[in-house]
Every structure is written in C-alpha cells, then in structure tokens.
C-alpha cells in the first residue's frame, strides 16, 4: 500500500525492459508530472534516459536512430493521434510504448497500422495514472470538478480511469462504499464499479489471504467536511502548502528574501530529500529545532574537515565532499523555507488567528467566540484572507444559531474590502442542508483547560499552537477499522460479501480534494497498524478550496440556510 513505490516499479520496468543503450523518454503533460514526482532527472540519467520530450508540443524533425524511444503517455484520443503521427515518421531507432492505463483495442490496431517501418518493439499497459505525493497520499491534480451536485463529465471519466488504475497498480479488487448524501460520490462509485465488472479479467487477483475480508474503497465528498481545508496548518508539509504552495513537489521561492539565486524553485520530495521525508509531519516548533540541530552537526563536520594534513586526509576530503555539498544544499533549502514560514506566521498574526480557528471548529461557545471574531475581523493587522476564513468557520458552525451574526461580520469584512460573496457560496456548498451527517458533533472536543503551550528549546519565540481539531476522516476511519456498521451513512455499491472482520486495507478517495491534515490522520492510523491510503481530485490549501467552492456553486439564495437568507435580505 505504497503509491510512490508502485509508480516507481512501473517506471523502472520501462527503463530496464528496453535493455542497455541511450534512451529518450516521450511523455504527455500528465505523465511528465507522474515521472518527475517519482524520480529526479539525475535518477533518470542513471537509467540511461538522457533526453525528455513532450509528445504534444512542437519538436524538431532531426532523426536520432541511435536512441531508443520510451513512450509513456495516457491513452487519450489526442495522444493516440500524436503517437500515430510519430510512428508514420519515426525519428528514433526503436519504440517501446507504455500506456498509463487501459488502452482500447481499436487504438492498438490504429497504432499497428501506423507503424509501417516496424519500429515498435513493445506495447504494454502500466497502471501509473496518478500522482504519488507521499507513500500514503495520491492526487489526480484535477481542480474545479463539480458543478452543483454533478461532475464535469471529463473530470468524472478521468477520476474513474485513474482510480481503477490505482487499484490495478496495488492489485486490489475492493468493495466500494460512498458517502450516502453525495450524488457526486455515488456517480464515481458507480463508474468504478462498472469499470471493474467490465475489466473483470484484469481484476482477477489471487486471494491475498484465505478468508480475509476484501479491501474497501471509500469515496467521500469534500462538502461533508468544509472545516479541515479552511484551517491554518502547523505540520511542515501542510504548512508549506498553505503558505507557499507545493505544486508537484515544487515550491516557488521567487521574491522571497534570503533565497539564493540558484534556489528560486526547490523540490520537497520524500523520495529525493531525506530531511523532508523524516520531517513532513513534524510541527512548526519541532522542525525549527531539527534544522538547528542539523546546522550544528554540519558546522562541526565542516570544521573537522579543514584539517587536511596528509595525502590520506586529502583523499578522505575528496571522497566525502559531495556528501557535504549535498548536506549544505539541504540545509540552505530548508533554512530558507522555514525562515519564510516564520516570517508569514509573524506577519499574519497566525498564532492568534489559528487559536481562534481551532476553538470555533472544536467547541461551541457562541457569545465569546463571536466577540473574538468581531475583534479580529476588524483588526487591520489581520489579513483579509484570514479574516474571511474566521467568518467562514463562524458561519458554518453557527449557521442556524438563534443569535447568529454572520451579516454583522460581513458588514465589517466589506468595510475592509473583503470578499463577502464567498460566505453565502460556502453555505450553499457545504451548509448544514448539504452536509452528510453532523460535522461539528463528530469533531472531538478537547477541554480547553488541558491545552498547553510549550516553548521549543533552542528557538526563542517559536511555540506550539493549538492542534485540537480532529478531521472528520479520522472518525470515519476509526469506525471502518473497528468494524462498526457503515450503513446507511456509507452504502455499498453492488453486492458486498459479509465478513465478520473489518477490512484490512482501505483506500479513501475524496471528491473535491483532500488535505495534508487528512494525510496526517491516515499516517497516524498506519502507525497504529492499519493499512490505509488517501487520495483526492487535488490536494487543497484554503485558497484552492475556496476557488473550488466558487466554481461548484451558483450564488443563488437558498431557503435551507438562515444565514443565507439574512445575507440576501441585508444590504451588504
């Protein structure tokens, strides 16, 4: 149940089956991202892949018959057309074609007819049609997939294809359950179920264990938990994504003070950066202390290497220098990233904002929380983005409260120039009428008296902030793995065999996007001995989530929400 390993095995298979010799890798936009998130360019060079090219962009007509061409593309109509054109006018000595998903027989026939020079040596399916973000986290990089309650048709078909490819890559034939209140989740579950039936031969895996319950594919809907993607994050990977944005494992540092000229874009990958892999779930204070310790170790080691007194010392220095150079680059990269995170925390007053966010999401105390939200929303030091998130969290929790004052908060936000139109759209998307179940009752409440703040030794001014919030996914997974009844909240599509034991392997997919906080919850479950992976149409920050909501909603008044009625009746 490791999605990165599954992708890497396919790519290693592609590069080895063609035998020794110089190779070019011909990809499309999607497979370029898939490969780059699994391997660095230097890793591919070691596999004798020296050139990389896109099949869908302009290229030279230079013939390079000494090169073997590895073709790794999605089996789309456009890609098939591009590949047929390539085969009619072959530029390379031989072609090894690998499709990232199931390819129709008609397309195979079309390729065969185009290969007049008989330069194709292999045509195979490899089921690497998804982005491996972490070992337990995958994404399809699809944004704004839902309109109202329905899928964009192209996004639905892409999600179904990629989800079934994921199952094939992990050799799993699961039972499928979905969020009962979600039309979109039901649509995807039905598509996947039909696809598995149609490709039954491909899904004919040997039983992993006699009498073991089948795996479970659980399809959820983002609208059932709109709170998690709105919260500020405090673990390393999640925090970088929220404040700096991670795009296919890359972070743009352009314009950030202290970033070296050769470090305007850095890679944060668990496969290519050991420090990042070891600290993706560390909180802000812990990561600061860890990088400080790493710097101390580096300084000690570099000082010891200055004593070069013999030929043997020189030889030892030359042998170890590349490692020190790599270590120095790692330190510099993370110091720059962490430094910018620290600047943003101070600039945006995030400790104070996050504390209130956590309290609103975890416990009901309307009067006190309303006064604090009013104060922060009116505070010019608080960014409009963070003020908006506080109003969104307040509106979602107290939507039907007798003294709900969302309109008053919106008036204050409007006076500061905030995007007040987002709030009614959020309630339309994920208000109480739209959510499946009772979100706020399912969030575990922690006694505020028990919450503590602790300074991290060695880093003055950096402290742990409240992390009370427990995402809805954690509660759902506990029910799944403990064998609690899932019907009727999460009905099964098709027939399900009855097993006394709960599933041992669970794949969760969130329509509308997953978050790094939910990936952390899955990681914690796996540390407890469970086997679970998480995926989503995309991986959200609060900004991308709000954009998703605006795309999915119409902005029309809805009778279900008291806050919405107040908003549309008020002169905002």
Describe this entry's structure for a reader.
The strands form 4 sheets. A 7-stranded mixed β-sheet has the order 6-7-16-15-11-10-14, with helices on both faces. About 4% of the residues have low confidence. It contains 21 helices and 16 strands. Among the domains are: 125 residues, Sec1/Munc18 (SM) protein, domain 1 (Rossmann fold, 3-Layer(aba) Sandwich), CATH 3.40.50.2060; 163 residues, Rossmann fold. The chain starts with a helix and ends with a helix. Helix 4 packs parallel to helix 5 and helix 14 packs antiparallel against helix 15. The protein has 572 residues and is an alpha/beta fold.
Give me some keywords for this one.
single chain; 572 residues; alpha/beta; Rossmann fold; five-stranded parallel beta sheet
Secondary structure layout plus pairing:
Layout: H1 3-17, E1 23-27, H2 29-38, H3 41-46, E2 49-54, E3 64-73, H4 77-88, E4 92-99, H5 105-114, E5 120-125, E6 131-134, E7 137-139, E8 146-147, E9 150-151, H6 153-170, E10 175-178, H7 183-198, E11 216-221, H8 236-243, E12 250-252, E13 265-267, H9 274-279, H10 284-305, H11 311-347, H12 350-362, H13 366-378, H14 384-397, H15 406-415, H16 422-430, H17 439-442, H18 472-481, E14 492-493, E15 505-511, H19 516-527, E16 531-536, H20 542-552, H21 562-569
Parallel strand pairs: 1-2, 1-3, 3-4, 4-5, 7-16, 10-11, 11-15, 15-16
Antiparallel strand pairs: 6-7, 8-9, 10-14, 12-13
Helix pairs in contact: 1-2, 4-5, 6-7, 10-11, 12-13, 12-14, 13-14, 14-15, 14-16, 16-20, 18-19
